[in-house]
Amino acid sequence: MTTNIAESMNSCLLAIRKLPITSIAEFIRDLLQRWFHDRRSNARETPTFLTNDADQHIKDRVLASQRCEIHPIDYDRFKVQDQWSEAIVDLEQRSCSCREWDLDELPCIHAMAVATLKGKPINSLCSDFFTTGWLKQAYTMVVNPVPNPEEWDIADDVRNRIVLPWKKKRLTGRPKKNRMPSVGEKRKQQSCGNCGQKGHNQKSCTNPSCSIGKPAKKARGCSVCKKEGHNKLTCPDRDKAPDPSLAPHLSSDDTDTDDEEVDS
Questions:
Q1: Most exposed residue of 51, 120, 181, 260, measured as fewest CB within 10 angstroms of its CB?
Q2: 109-118 and 52-65 are packed helices; what angle lies between their axes, rounded to 10 degrees?
Q3: What angle do CA 176, 32, 8 make, to 5 degrees?
Q4: What pLDDT is stored for residue 78 in this prediction?
């Protein structure tokens, strides 16, 4: 058993989990209404006997089935050999020893090769669940919209009933937003950006810094002595540096005037 259907619905409801329950129910109803309408329309527009996925499955395996060697065993059982292995096909039991036909209920390349030899339609080897007719029946139900609440016919005992809030003891800490993994599902572990190992992050990493594959950081030098390892606040030569506030601020025009006076 898998939880693919539940996971697909959870991904659609991820953005509305914080809404009230009535809003969530209305969103689910509208979502199912659109899904059923779209799939019902696609089923009506499908011209083939099989669904699009099943028909593509047959087309992808036609060329490989033509390269198989067939050796009859009896009227319904055949030994079929392809490029990699061999299998026993039983048309009466609708089975193949490769187990692909048995599990998917769509013919494998061995069964398709035998059907071509016997002149039997390949579509007849597929399960009825892959036909367009069954697809139309799956979406015949119509999801109707909810009428106006003012038009609802509510019984008096239901209208006068007082519904109290649910008594639940709230646990300490922040409520969880992420889903709980299923049994046997492997959770993706976080990898450290420093050492590359899993199970911790860069902030809680206790391993020495790893510079493999990372560009080395350029050390910042002191703005006073231009040496590395300290800054201008901790520089031992800070007192020897000239004070920029005491330097003369002479413009280029003043310098030119002084030069002219010296020449005169």
A1: 260
A2: 80
A3: 40
A4: 93
Task: Quote the pTM value.
Answer: 0.55
Per DSSP, the three-state class of 16 is helix
pLDDT at 219: 56
Whether the CB-CB separation of 197 and 207 falls below 8 Å is answered with yes
Token pair of 35 as six digits: 């899904």
Q: Among positive and negative, which fits the CA dihedral 202, 207, 211, 216?
A: positive
Q: Please state, in angstroms and as integers, the Cα–Cα distance from residue 122 to each residue in 75, 83, 100, 126, following that order.
A: 18, 21, 15, 7
Query: Are 110 and 104 contacting, i.e. CB atoms less than 8 angstroms apart?
Result: no
Q: What angle do CA 32, 179, 192 make, to 5 degrees?
A: 135
Q: Which amino acid is at 130?
A: F
Q: Is the pLDDT of residue 18 over 90?
A: no
Distances (CA, A) of 102 to 64, 91, 136, 170, 187: 19, 12, 24, 50, 32
**Residue 204 identity:** S
Reading the block at residue 20, the tokens are 């009230």
Indicate the pLDDT class of residue 244, thresholds 50, 70 and 90. low
What is the C-alpha radius of gyration for the chain, rounded to an integer number of angstroms?
Answer: 38
Alpha helices in 132-220 (DSSP H): 132-138, 156-159
Cite the beta strand spans of the chain per DSSP E: 69-72, 77-81, 86-90, 95-96
Task: Provide the token pair at 22.
Answer: 């009535």
